[in-house]
């Protein structure tokens, strides 16, 4: 357990429980979550009057604000985080387990949670990151980052386990292709499913499915595991 006086920017910590990260010091909007076991670094030690501290998650370089009430859920990491290098062939053997993770997640009662990366409630990119991470493959946190990270492929070359991206100016939504023109995703309450569901990549579905299909941007294949340039970018 860590207390305020022990916080250091040079130390790597490990989460002992699932923790919420927010997009500002006020802590009123969830940005991401850190599952138990994840590593993080404190970016700067807060003043005594602060209510939160800015941290960076080591696995994906994602930063956010952690409530100071949650620092008691941190312990100094016994060993620093070390990214695992995987070949494209090694990743391909794990794709069936990635798909299974998403399908099992859909069977548990859930709803769409902006910033959610920890079961049972996910946002779109949070579900993708959690599914791959469960299989030892790290993706960046957000949909547009995942799009930039993957190897872009043509729609006709889609294979189960590839990612499909939606959006106009940039990727704002992502799903996992299952084959036979279907993909699984977590979508929002407004013009979405409010949770994890399966939709089709065509004009044959209902209005929600059609709405997403009309925003299809591109498709990508995960061919490597994400490696931050340093322990925290």
In brief, what are we looking at here?
A hairpin with a 2-residue loop joins strand 8 and strand 9 (121-122). Helix content is 19%, strand content 29%.
Description:
This protein has 233 residues and is of the alpha+beta class. 19% of the residues lie in helices and 29% in strands. The protein is built from 4 helices and 15 strands. The strands form 4 sheets. It has a 6-stranded antiparallel beta sheet with strand order 10-15-11-12-13-14, sandwiched between helices. Helix 1 (88-107) crosses helix 2.
Give the helix/strand layout.
Blueprint lengths: L11 E4 L3 E4 L7 E5 L4 E4 L9 E6 L5 E5 L6 E3 L11 H20 L9 E2 L2 E2 L1 H11 L8 H7 L1 E3 L9 E4 L6 E7 L2 E6 L7 E6 L6 H7 L2 E6 L12
Antiparallel strand pairs: 1-4, 1-7, 2-3, 4-5, 5-6, 8-9, 10-15, 11-12, 11-15, 12-13, 13-14
Helix pairs in contact: 1-2
Keywords:
single chain; 6-stranded antiparallel β-sheet; 15 strands; 233 residues; 4 helices
Shape: globular
Largest sheet: 6 strands, antiparallel
Structural class, from helix and strand content?
Answer: alpha+beta
**β-strand amount:** 25-35%
Mean of pLDDT: 95
Total of helices: 4
CA radius of gyration: 18 Å
Overall strand count: 15
Helix content, binned percent: 10-25%
Regions with little confidence, pLDDT below 50 for 5+ residues = none
For the largest beta sheet, what order do the strands appear in spatially?
Answer: 10-15-11-12-13-14
N-to-C order of helices and strands? EEEEEEEHEEHHEEEEEHE
Spatial separation of the terminal alpha carbons: 25 Å
């Amino acid at each position: 357990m860590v207390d305020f006086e022990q916080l250091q920017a040079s130390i790597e910590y490990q989460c002992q429980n699932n923790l919420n990260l927010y997009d500002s010091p006020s802590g009123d909007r969830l940005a991401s979550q850190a599952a138990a076991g994840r590593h993080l670094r404190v970016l700067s030690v807060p003043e005594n009057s602060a209510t939160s501290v800015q941290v960076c998650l080591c696995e994906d370089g994602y930063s956010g604000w952690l409530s100071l009430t949650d620092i008691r859920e941190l312990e100094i990491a016994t060993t620093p985080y070390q990214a695992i290098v995987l070949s494209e062939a090694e990743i391909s053997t794990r794709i069936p387990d990635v798909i299974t993770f998403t399908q099992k997640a859909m069977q548990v009662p859930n709803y769409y949670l902006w910033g959610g990366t920890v079961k049972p409630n996910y946002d779109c990119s949070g579900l993708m990151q959690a599914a791959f991470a469960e299989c030892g493959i790290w993706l960046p946190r957000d949909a547009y980052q995942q799009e930039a990270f993957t190897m872009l492929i043509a729609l006709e070359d889609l294979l189960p386990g590839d990612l499909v991206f939606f959006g106009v100016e940039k990727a704002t939504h992502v799903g996992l292709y299952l084959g036979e023109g279907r993909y699984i995703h977590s979508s929002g309450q407004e013009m979405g499913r409010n949770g994890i569901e399966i939709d089709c990549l065509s004009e044959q579905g209902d209005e929600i499915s059609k709405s997403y299909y009309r925003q299809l941007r591109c498709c990508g294949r995960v061919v490597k595991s994400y490696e931050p340039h340093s322990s925290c970018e």
